[in-house]
Amino acid sequence: MRRTEKEQFLRETLGDEQPPAHQARAIIEEKLRSAILDGRLPAGIALRQQELATLFGVSRMPVREALRQLEAQSLLRVETHKGAVVAPLINEDATDAYALRILLESEALRQSIPLLTPDDINTARGYIEKLEVETDYTVMGTLNRLFHMTLYSKAHNTRLLKLVEDGLNEEERFLRFNLEHMNLGKVSQNDHLELLEMAAVGNVEATIEALAHHLNRGVEAINAYLSARKAEDAKPAPALKKRALAH
C-alpha cells in the first residue's frame, strides 16, 4: 500500500478528528482497538507512530502510549523493520492463553462468588439479556467481558482481576470469529445462563467446572481453525498451465 493510499485508508478507517490533549491517548487507543476488533484494520498492517500522530494532529507520545497498551492486550506485536503491526487473529499459543484463563478465572470465581450480591447477579443477567438481542460483534464482545467481570468483581486480589480482564480483552477479537464463523452464539449464551444460575446459589465448584467447560469450547474452536489453516497451507500450489509457461 503506497504512502498516500495508506494515509487515505487510515483516515477513512479511524477518522482524523483531533482529540483533546488530555484525552488523546485514551481516544486513539479506543479508535485503534475498535478498528482491530471489528476487522477494519487487518492483521499485518503496520501502525507507525508518525503516521498516526499526523492523522490525529498530536505529538507522538500519546500515540506511543496507545500502541503500548494495545501491544499489552496482544492486539499488536512489534516486528523488525515494521514496528507495531496488527497481530494475527489467532496465534499458535492461543490454546495456552485459554488454559491460563481457566486457572486465573477459576480463582477469581472462588474468591468472588461468596461475596456476590443480588444486585451483582441482576447486573450479570442484564448483560445476558442484552447479548440475546445485540447484533454488533464489537458490542457483543464488550457485553461478554462485562458479564464475566461482574461474576469476578468481588475477588479481593486486584492483580488477579487485572490479569483476568487482560485475558478477556484479548479474547474479544476471537469472540467475533467464534460467534460469526463457528456459530457458537446460542451455545455461549446457554453457558452464560448456566454460570449465572450456579453463581446465584453460591455453588462455587460447580460454577468453576461450568466455566472450564465454557472456555474449553473456545479451545476446540481454535484447534479446529488452526488445523484447517495448516491443511490449507499444506496444499500444493496449483500447477501453471502450459500456455502460461510458454510466455
TrEMBL record:
- Kindly give the SUPFAM superfamilies that the UniProt entry links to this protein: GntR ligand-binding domain-like, Winged helix' DNA-binding domain
According to the entry, every stretch annotated as the HTH gntR-type domain falls at 22-89
Q: What is the name listed in the Swiss-Prot or TrEMBL entry for this protein?
A: GntR family transcriptional regulator
Q: Which InterPro entries match?
A: GntR_C (IPR011711), TF_FadR/GntR_C (IPR008920), Tscrpt_reg_HTH_GntR (IPR000524), WH-like_DNA-bd_sf (IPR036388), WH_DNA-bd_sf (IPR036390)
- Which Pfam families does this chain map to? FCD, GntR
Record organism = Pseudomonas lutea
Q: What keywords does the record list, in alphabetical order? A: DNA-binding, Transcription, Transcription regulation
Q: Does the keyword Transcription regulation apply?
A: yes
Q: Which domain of life is it from?
A: Bacteria
- PANTHER family associated with the record: TRANSCRIPTIONAL REGULATOR, GNTR FAMILY, TRANSCRIPTIONAL REGULATORY PROTEIN
What residue stretch is flagged as signal peptide? none
Residue ranges for the region (Disordered) are: 1-21
Bias (Basic and acidic residues) ranges: 1-14
Classification via PROSITE patterns: HTH_GNTR
